[in-house]
């Protein structure tokens, strides 16, 4: 795993099924997410399955609207252009940049890549929502310094 990444401690739900996932916040404050292509992520050609790449794009690009771990959001629209494949064992990274905002709805431009190879690009529209009483966080980040 490249320097600076930590495991996203997803303890329940869908994120746990498609993981493990990793994240880091870079020097510019951009939250990047990543995963290593394992056998359960692959298609018949032993590349990351397109469904996995779209799932990952949703998680990586949506993270662009997170202010902190208590920010909750839902996907309104996700548009993806598939450009290349990621073979088994590849370390896939992705991030999004907010390019527009209307109240609590954000437009994000995103990229998914492995090394210098661009795998996917696209846009997402994400709505920030309030957590409802009784909802449990899907993951809990470790305390700083722990």
From TrEMBL:
| Residue stretches spanning the membrane | none
Quote the InterPro entries the UniProt record gives: HotDog_dom_sf, Thioestr_dom
GO MF terms listed in the record are: thiolester hydrolase activity
Domain (Thioesterase) spans 47-117
Tree of life domain: Bacteria
Name of a matching Pfam family? 4HBT
Name by which UniProt lists this protein: Thioesterase domain-containing protein
Which organism does this sequence originate in? Hyphomonas pacifica
